[in-house]
Amino acid sequence: MKIIVLGCGGSAGVPMIGGKDGCGEWGACDPLEKRNIRSRSSILFQMNNGLSVLIDTTPDLRQQFLTNGITRCDAVIYTHAHADHIGGVDDLRAINRLTQKPIRVYGTETVLKELQQRFGYVFKAWMSFNLPCDLPRASLEAVPVSMGSITFIEGIPFTLFEQNHGSIFSTGIRCGVFAYSTDVVDLSDKSLALLQGVHVWMVDCFQREAHTTHAWLERVLEWRQIIRPHRMILTHMGVDMDWCWLQNNLPQGVEAAYDGMMFDVADPI
Ligand SMILES: [Zn+2]
Ligand SMILES: [Zn+2]
């Protein structure tokens, strides 16, 4: 399967709104380095059988799909209900129009309840329209998931696990030898056990210094000693994380993601 990194930025993106000239606050990031331009964090699984599973719907979803030529999304897995991970849900309407069917969205009871409260209209029953372009809103079907056991999503086995994200829990996602851990500050022994044997691990690394709700560089490198993935890819990075600095300073086997990055991993058995 192929993983497409649609976005790898923190909740405010890089650059953040602001800056001396009002054209962006870049922090430690070099504005001339294109790989420092980060939209909000999301990835897409493209399976070898053609299925596409999206992780989160960021406020940047429309541009992320256009930039990467994506016109197919068979299911969405939500990691949690923070605004930078759900804010683009309305733009799934474009996929509904193309496929003429609702999209199944998977999440914990807590996440689905939050989505229901904020975007209740997208869960109304599917209506057929004479003209495809008449579809007035996104149309989704909520499917609750539980942690720890294998969950088949569109026939693909995923293992979902709990992650501590400060005041809430987020959902980590494992599919075969690949795992995605965005928005996480701590992992229980149980979740670390579920990550054993992962070859490629994408992990939240918001900044270099310690943080209360997101993992930081030192913590990520500690986790690496426990799980020992072949490849570790940092995501959900803020303005502290200059791409070139990271390339020059990270140990071998650890790298910073960038928007549009793609890589292959073995399909789950
Ligand atoms: Zn986030
Ligand atoms: Zn979050």
Model description:
This protein has helices spanning 61-68, 83-86, 93-99, 109-118, 189-194, 217-227, 243-249, and strands at residues 2-7, 42-46, 52-55, 75-77, 103-107, 140-144, 150-153, 156-165, 168-175, 178-181, 200-204, 231-235, 254-256, 262-264. By secondary structure, it is α/β, with parallel strands linked by helices. The protein has a single domain, classed as Ribonuclease Z/Hydroxyacylglutathione hydrolase-like (Metallo-beta-lactamase, Chain A, 4-Layer Sandwich). A seven-stranded mixed sheet has the order 6-5-4-3-2-1-14. Strands 7-8-9-10-11-12-13 form a seven-stranded mixed sheet. Strand 2 (42-46) and strand 3 form a beta hairpin. The mean pLDDT is 96. Bound molecules: zinc ion (ZN) (2 copies). Residues 80, 82, 165, 183 line the site of one zinc ion (ZN).
CATH topology: Metallo-beta-lactamase, Chain A
Q: What's the CATH class, please? A: Alpha Beta
Structure summary, number of beta strands:
14
Give me the strand/helix succession.
Answer: EEEHEHHEHEEEEEHEHEHEE
Strand order of the largest sheet: 6-5-4-3-2-1-14
